[in-house]
Amino acid sequence: MLSISDKEKIINEIIFKASLSSGAGGQHVNKVNTKVELRFHIDKSENFNEEEKHVLKTKLKNKISNEGFLVLSSQSERTQLKNKGKVLERFFDLLEKALKPEKKRKPTKPTKASKEKRLKEKHMQSEKKTGRKDVDL
């Protein structure tokens, strides 16, 4: 989990861009830049080591542009400040999920009851199909 000081250091590396929001909203939306776009260059960041950068790039590859920027945007709120807060919250959630180590799967064996159920279903399917065959007269 990222500490508050880590988040503050990361925020200094983020580029914010405001633009007009799309969609309905009347006159307000046509004259105010409320949409906020967050851009973060993973390779140029000094807050992550090489291993963490590699993990971020592989897990978030669908959100990374050709130039290497992680790009997120928010336009759901009516104010730029709220959209900025929302996009920052999503950004840090993404980072924490990506950097969280995956749990190792414990291999398990099927239970005796599940094996018997599978064999019973196979037998019933077989019976169903043999019942469809033509009968010799």
Q: How do the strands and helices of this protein lay out in sequence?
A:
Blueprint: H1 4-11, E1 15-19, H2 26-31, E2 35-41, H3 50-59, E3 69-74, H4 80-99, H5 112-130
Antiparallel strand pairs: 1-2, 2-3
SS summary, helix count: 5
Q: Please give the share of residues in helix.
A: 40-55%
The backbone outline, from C-alpha atoms, is elongated
Structural class: alpha+beta
As a whole number of angstroms, the C-alpha radius of gyration is 27 Å
CATH architecture: 2-Layer Sandwich
Which stretches are poorly predicted, pLDDT < 50 over at least 5 residues? none
N-end to C-end Cα span: 75 Å
What is the name of the CATH class?
A: Alpha Beta
Major sheet: order of its strands?
A: 1-2-3
Mean pLDDT: 88
CATH third-level topology: Double Stranded RNA Binding Domain
Count of domain modules: 1
SSE topology string: HEHEHEHH
- Work out the number of β strands: 3
* Fraction of residues in β-strands: 5-15%
Largest sheet: 3 strands, antiparallel
What does it look like?
The structure is a single chain. The chain is an alpha+beta fold and 137 residues long. The protein has one domain: Double Stranded RNA Binding Domain. It is built from 5 helices and 3 strands. Strands 1-2-3 form a 3-stranded antiparallel sheet, covered by helices on one side. The radius of gyration is 27 Å and the shape is elongated. The relative contact order is 0.13.
